[in-house]
Amino acid sequence: MLSIYNTLARSKEVFTPIEPGKVRMYVCGMTVYDYCHLGHARVMVVFDMVARWLRASGMDVTYVRNITDIDDKIIRRAQDNGEPIRALTDRFIAAMHQDADALGVLRPDFEPRATDYIAQMQSLIGRLEQKGLAYVAANRDVCYAVRKFGGYGRLSGKSLDELRAGERVDVAGEKNDPLDFVLWKHAKAAEPDEVKWASPWGAGRPGWHIECSAMSSELLGEHFDIHGGGMDLQFPHHENEIAQSEGAHGHTFVNVWMHNGFVRVDDEKMSKSLGNFFTIREVLQKYDPEVVRFFILRAHYRSALNYSDAHLEDARNALTRLYTALKNVPAGNGAAVDWREPAAQRFRAAMDDDFNTAEAVAVLFELANEVNRSASPALAAQLKALAAVLGLLGRDPQAFLQAGAPDASGLDAGAIEGKVAERAAAKKAKNYAEADRIRAELLESGVILEDGAGGTTWRRA
Questions:
Q1: Number of neighbouring beta carbons within 10 Å of residue 193
Q2: Amino acid 324: pLDDT
Q3: What does the angle CA 413 – CA 403 – CA 414 come to, to the nearest 5 degrees?
């Protein structure tokens, strides 16, 4: 029985879908004005894992992950580049898809762009205005009246007084109350026409928070099962979504709120200001995408994820051990998980305990050790099938073990194969000293040779 930690309840709860056998899940996606960073990678991989496990558990999942394609940062970047906003956002959406595909992230069922849901946002704002929860401020922005919504602060656990004193609260004087937030931004003369939409309140564009309330209710209904995102979105974004949606509709918005932990770099929170900010593309220049996915999944999604070269190297070595077990005992393709088998039962228990991938990955290593000991094709097939639930071990083992960019000596796969052939010729000529020299040369370059009955194979160290 699946239990999920619900941020709203601050505890793990047995998960019961609103509609038996069906799960509706919304996750806050990317603001597309730059390349995705490691924090985005974690959100994408974590909730891809969640969707995969729900489906592996027999549930029909509708997964929505939005795209924010209009906000202040996007406008500034497009103006700095001298290009239309749509050209900018299209380019970075394509880059996001490339990064996600590399990481083995399956596409969501729906990936709505905010600019395609302006009418729904305006309708929601109009309903809030009718209920007295929204007003036109002195600067002609439409704002949400936070103090008029009785449940504000439940998700973040903050009282209104604490929020009033918090440094994240906007104190613009045009609002009725500093706690209030913008639903609709009145157009500024300097802004391009492509970010000005006609509305009952004059030309303008939506605030950030309203887009998710509008898109989620349009695609999943006014009440759905799971809402996810990074821990940094808990306040104010998700808090404001609750206020907007429940204020407009008068009932529960979401049953379960899930938040993944921060990415840290050498034990410091990743941020541009600290100079420890890495895009997915930068990381993938150094590490295989599956290694990065494995690194993310090896930690529990709610824990902090500490990025460092040492941790990525450790993840690479660990994934190599799993692939080596499959190389030595071929598993074939397409085998289904045997859920009656003890390792599979332990795997299921781990995943049903708030998606505990750390324990599930430990089960994969236990199974790999048993494969190495028994050389059982059935256990190798089970290892491959269980790992596939997490989006891992789907490649040919030898291809993974030989993957990697040429080293400093310029040894790509072709050059290594040439060295292997030279060594074979030296051994045939009984020139064992030369054969040993070639083996040592390759080892120095990070290539390990493995002699077996079928000949010599190689892998990167």
A1: 7
A2: 95
A3: 5
Q: The tokens of 252 are what?
A: 């529960």
Inform me whether the pLDDT recorded for 69 exceeds 80.
yes
Residue 287 DSSP symbol: S
> What is the pLDDT averaged over residues 383-403?
95
Residues 6+ positions from 38 with CB-CB distance below 8 Å: 263, 270, 278, 279, 280, 283, 307
Q: Is the pTM for the entire model greater than 0.85?
A: yes
Query: Residue 341 to residues 264, 278, 336, 376: CA-CA distances in angstroms?
Result: 37, 41, 12, 14
CA distance 213 to 122: 11
- Burial pattern 294-317, b for ≥16 Cβ within 10 A else e, equals bbbbbbbbbeebbbeeeebeebbe
Distance CA 394, CA 377 (A): 16
Is the model's pLDDT at 436 over the cut of 80?
Answer: no
Higher-confidence residue: 244 or 454?
244
Contact 235, 155 (CB under 8 A): yes
H or E element that contains 93: helix 85-102
Residue 386 amino acid letter: L
Going by pLDDT thresholds of 50, 70 and 90, the confidence category of residue 426 is: confident
Q: How many CB atoms lie within 10 A of CB 279?
A: 17
pLDDT band at 454 (very low <50, low <70, confident <90, very high): low
Minimal CA–CA distance to 360: which of 335, 394, 396, 388?
388
